[in-house]
Amino acid sequence: MSKIQWSQTEDQIAKQAFQTAYKRETSTLIANVRDRAGSITELEDLWYLHDLLSTKRYEIDGKYDYDSSTAVFDFAKLIKEGWLSLEDLKGLNAEILSKISALVRM
Which of 53, 57, 75 is nearest to 6 (CA)? Predict the structure, then answer.
């Protein structure tokens, strides 16, 4: 894929979209942890929650490390996972949106 040139406005839109996805995913995780924590009855349940949190921290820390050179791929992944929609990327140029859409369909 050719190198994409991001305008300053597009870079701001991209960073905001990453922040939106981050907030959605972390809010969902917090709600999930609250539900699971309330149903802990055995030590194994506690260790499961610990392992879940460790895994999620690793995944989330890596996923939301913004890099404009990989943002098209990152956005496609976030859309596939349900944390973003193409509407969240409104304002990016048509070429970028087209590339993201194509990757989402793959």
Answer: 75
pTM of the model: 0.90
DSSP 89: G
How far apart CA 91 and CA 60 sit, in angstroms, is 25
- 6: exposed, middle or buried (Cβ count in 10 Å: 0-12, 13-18, 19+): middle
Kindly give the confidence (pLDDT) of every residue in the chain, 106 residues in length, as a single tens digit, with 9 standing for 90 and above: 557 889 999 999 999 999 999 999 999 999 999 999 999 999 999 999 999 999 999 999 999 989 999 999 999 999 999 999 999 999 999 999 999 999 999 9
Q: What is the DSSP-derived secondary structure letter of residue 91? A: T
Based on its alpha-carbon atoms, the radius of gyration of the chain, rounded to whole angstroms, reads: 17
Domain ranges of the chain: 8-105
CB 75 within 8 A of CB 1: no
Contact 22, 64 (CB under 8 A): yes
CA angle 102, 57, 38 (to 5 degrees): 115
